[in-house]
UniProtKB/TrEMBL annotation, chains A, B, C:
The keyword Transferase applies. This is N-succinylornithine carbamoyltransferase. It catalyses: N(2)-succinyl-L-ornithine + carbamoyl phosphate = N(2)-succinyl-L-citrulline + phosphate + H(+). Catalyzes the transfer of the carbamoyl group from carbamoyl phosphate to the delta-amino group of N(2)-succinyl-L-ornithine to produce N(2)-succinyl-L-citrulline. Is essential for arginine biosynthesis. It is an enzyme of class 2 (transferase). The gene is argF'.
Amino acid sequence: MKNYLSIKDIDNLPGWVEEAKKLKQNPVTHKNLGAGKTLCLLFFNNSLRTRLSTQKAALNLGMEVMVMNFGNEGWILEYGDGTVMDQGNSEHVKEAAQVVSQYCDIVAIRAFAGLKDKAKDEAEEVLNGFATYASVPVVNMESSVGHPLQALADAITLSEQHPTKRPKIVLSWAPHPKALPHAVANSFVEMMRLQDAEFVITHPKGYELNPSITEGLTIEYDQKKACENADFIYVKNWSSYSDYGKVLHQNPDWMMTQEKLGGAKFMHCLPVRRNVIVADAVLDGAKSLVIEQANNRTFSAQVVLKKLLEQT
Amino acid sequence: MKNYLSIKDIDNLPGWVEEAKKLKQNPVTHKNLGAGKTLCLLFFNNSLRTRLSTQKAALNLGMEVMVMNFGNEGWILEYGDGTVMDQGNSEHVKEAAQVVSQYCDIVAIRAFAGLKDKAKDEAEEVLNGFATYASVPVVNMESSVGHPLQALADAITLSEQHPTKRPKIVLSWAPHPKALPHAVANSFVEMMRLQDAEFVITHPKGYELNPSITEGLTIEYDQKKACENADFIYVKNWSSYSDYGKVLHQNPDWMMTQEKLGGAKFMHCLPVRRNVIVADAVLDGAKSLVIEQANNRTFSAQVVLKKLLEQT
Amino acid sequence: MKNYLSIKDIDNLPGWVEEAKKLKQNPVTHKNLGAGKTLCLLFFNNSLRTRLSTQKAALNLGMEVMVMNFGNEGWILEYGDGTVMDQGNSEHVKEAAQVVSQYCDIVAIRAFAGLKDKAKDEAEEVLNGFATYASVPVVNMESSVGHPLQALADAITLSEQHPTKRPKIVLSWAPHPKALPHAVANSFVEMMRLQDAEFVITHPKGYELNPSITEGLTIEYDQKKACENADFIYVKNWSSYSDYGKVLHQNPDWMMTQEKLGGAKFMHCLPVRRNVIVADAVLDGAKSLVIEQANNRTFSAQVVLKKLLEQT
């Protein structure tokens, strides 16, 4: 593994999940592995869980951490090839990525989708720019099209619930006032392809995810029907993919309720809008796994950093 | 002590002050106490002294520190119960507090009074929100109504001057162009209730502090008279409490001068407006304790963190 | 050396360069030197290389690091003597510098030229304010008129190329859409005075640097002629000094090209505007030393910190 850019970089999901669960039992076992090594976190967007859990994971491994917010602390980057840089952008990602590589052993990057230009978002110019030019491993802390640290944490959370039978897992769209990216949903779907489970995606018409990601998977437009007899319901909003980045509607009927949840466990990556995405009763109830998902972000990051450190 | 939210959480002020003074003599004696433990500092407002001294205190104890500015780095929090979160706020403090608790062993929070809505400020929604939902101890780095790390540092500073007699200590209002919170004054008053001293509060009419905090204490509206024969004069601006958050006037006669100071020592929590709050001659003179007060912020934080670490 | 404020604080450039090159071969040799010591980085302006490389240097020496952005995290500082601080500035540098000195062992400061008021910029109020009032050593991370950590890194880079003969080194102006400070050019010139080299400065008329800095040096207004047979060409934009802070023109003929570079090595401090300052072919070519210059920023900072730590 050169980098951790997407779920596709996981060579053995069950093995990684087991390793993460072991790290969780004794987080500082490998405190010497990262000694003298430095992780640099570069944020082009806001973050709470990712910011803190990735730092914590690095500290557990004995690494030093340097955190930088590119927006207000660094320079505006240019990504184009051959550009005459006489406008607002001060530095090319070619230099930025090579330079950062001089000061750290692993670089982790968060850069959300802009949701205005599908081709540009799918080109992943920030993440791929760094992955192309950095001379150290690059970790995706949520990019335009994927959030593989979250999906790996979700896999750990699912595994900890050790369902006794092959579980039914539903990914359900829910309403939200703002246009949100597809990254979390995309990586969850990719991770689900590596799980032995009955997997159903449900959303209103018009909210289909990128068809190349959902190809061959079950899509059920009736949310209630999709949720019947589910063991886990993962709720998440995303904006339209076909009418790219648009909020087509915020139909409140799609909010997750106790009734729809039934006997299933509730999952969400957070932050979550209460009583818009999910009713208070669900989020505050015993079936909610959201805090454990957040907790597992540390061990998801830690297993990734550990694997990258082991091969250097 | 579950949390350090206010002066009321100090069970034995003289004991804490003595412990802080011992830590000051050898700050790294307890370097092992915090090994493998992480402090998370969450700032909802600007900070210089608190930001650096609290970090330094944690490093002295061997802790790791993660610093986060909620404003521009995290998500806008919601505090209400049962709110339909379809407006600007992205995450509820219920989740934020539980999530942060997954990544650290102690969380410290700065969230100033907004000075627009007295009831809201007195509800301390940020500090109390975290204290209610966090599963780790919470430390107040200045909230709407209190700044107990400052008042503890002030107690250390007073003690270091070891007055030979029961001292006369004055808390004097001074003018300021902007509306400032009451937190520093409130906590100083609460701390003074635990001191064996003659304590006088002086301010112009209309600038009375919350009467439930000053109940039974001496208020003298004539500043010169209040300052006569004082051993320590603590100067601080605050906005009106009765006409909540308003600057009623900026009467320059209330600026602290050499003449009014007399033989007393000058105290202020900083930052301070020169020649508005206090004359240059006082601040630059031998009677000023402000830098020592700032220095003691480290040991005030360190004694609090030490006590919280010892009971985990 | 009390502080590292300018190239003039280097007592023996060849000795420092050799020491830096040794640190580069084994960066953690002196890991114990900084144990229990804290470096505080104060940024009044953006930074990528300086932010990360100075942290890395400190970590290599075993120091703890606290990073603070004064702009959005702290208070707006006042620098004037005797000012009545009833306007926007909340804290005087006198207090800020003394206070920060309570929490760290070395303080490093970045504060760019405003380019509006020459006298104010040349007074270096931020850097000199801290140097005057701090009780710990102060390091210049680029001030109004100098960037001595960069120039020291440049000296290391030049030395690593070990030219077999006395080299010809050219400092060439290049166009840029925005008004940039003179700090990098100034410190490079000052450092060149300590080198055994043929040194030529080239720029269009009107872009003369501060004559007190270039006094006695060769200035050639014909860029092509200046670059003939050069071994190293250091390219950098700066705004006019005589018509202070103005962009007189952005003549694209002054961009560095393969043709003008000839057999010379290309140097630039970064960030650099591609195809404005320098053609892609030069920057991406084998003659470019820019990434190695960035790498040497770590060891330039490390040798400075090491010397400051050794004398405390």
